Request: fold
Amino acid sequence: MTRGPLPFAALSVVVQLAACSGNPDKSGDTAGTGFQFLAPDAMPPLRGGGGPATSFSTDALWQGCAPLHGGDKDYKHHNLVVTWRGHLLMPWSPEFGSGGMTLFDMADPCAPTHVGEGWSQTMRESHAIGLMHLPEGTELDGVDIAGDYAAVTGVLGVEIWDLSDETSLEPLSYVELEDVFYPDSYARVVLSVFWQYPWLYVGAADNGVLVLDASDPSSPFEVMRFDPDIRVAGVFVLGDLLLATSAEGRESVLYDVGVPDDPQPIPGGRFENADHTGVAKEAYHGNLVGDMALFARKEGGGGFMMYDVSDPTAPTFVTDWQSDGNGGYVFYDEGYIFVGESSVGRVYDARATSAVELVGEVHLAGDLDTLTPYGNVVVASVDDEAEDDIATMIFPWAEAPDSTGPEVLRVRPVDGATGISPRVRIGVGFNEFIEPSSVFAGSIRLWDSAGRPVDGWGSGQETIASLSPKEDLIPGETYTVEVMAGGVRDLNDNALAETVTTTFSVAGTP
Reply:
């Protein structure tokens, strides 16, 4: 490592694109800095048709209607999919390394259109993808770094891809990390990433959690690492809260990451993944959705377990479901839980946590570990033993296209919090996957008590939006967060309906 973490102020946007709107009670620029918030809907234009716009008959539900194939070099090892600027982004890479990513237009999900792809020798099986749009004019040390980027796992570390040209995806940078070994499936590998720009958190199995400075997507570097004393599978960061889940383990750990490169374990934040009997069960992987920690149950059958982490010092059991499967990965969409269970993919209705119901299931040849919600279809993926060109299949699961915008489940720092770090980032947890490019300083706004707007970088991953202030906040100051109506959107381009407002106070004396 040749340099320390870059101050946010080192990054700049040369041209401000739009004026402040939607906040008549604040001037938007009382300090005369020239910064004003973009309009809530001033996200970069979508390049694709968005989420599925097709309605299905009852008879068509749970029936496979279209496979997704990555390209000529596709090894037929697939995992999750995500949305990026109106397209579906599908990684395809085996755990032994080399693979790529492909973009599809999914407006008609049963007739997906191939848009573009790319390949890398050093990419590895991807269980998480961090996404970031740096607007035109963004510079770092005088160098233009504007573009669209994705962070994924690599054979011996992490990779960042350039998605700026949707017809030709390109691996941009690859950084090998100390003590990561190959070949290895679980012990000393990188299993997941979470990009809360500019910080990239890496779940690295027995190596713990690594923190990288990825301010410059072409040159990320490790800053520090810490050991939660579990085999880390998933890392999820919501503002100042980090959840580390274990790979085939029975424990999870919560950290305070208000100081991003000095995480602190939260007293009481280590907890067992126990089912309704109170007995800890192995979970293959997990997730964080608002205040809900979700786990794909592996031991004693499949299904899921849900914990409430709204008080991170005392996580509490909420509900579970035990099936005859063998859990893989778990996702959430508007009250429904999606679990790949190795031989089958299942969807559970958990809108009423006291009365969970099995909604339906899908079948696909191979090791079906991943079932990703994508509007009114699910994307089922197998990571081994797939039939020819059918490692991923589209299945309708709901009749009508999604027409409701995302809802805010939690903002962190929590409303009314005091003693917050000046280096904190804002996290907003939603009830469904969001379009990451809709997160920016405009759709989410941060104001000081004098009504001055605070500039920041936006990034998104699955259900979580992050806003990172470009400069440290003022000690002793009270700030207001506004998650703006008409701003953050889901993959069907439905926007948040109502503005959500919270406040917090920074530690120290003004």
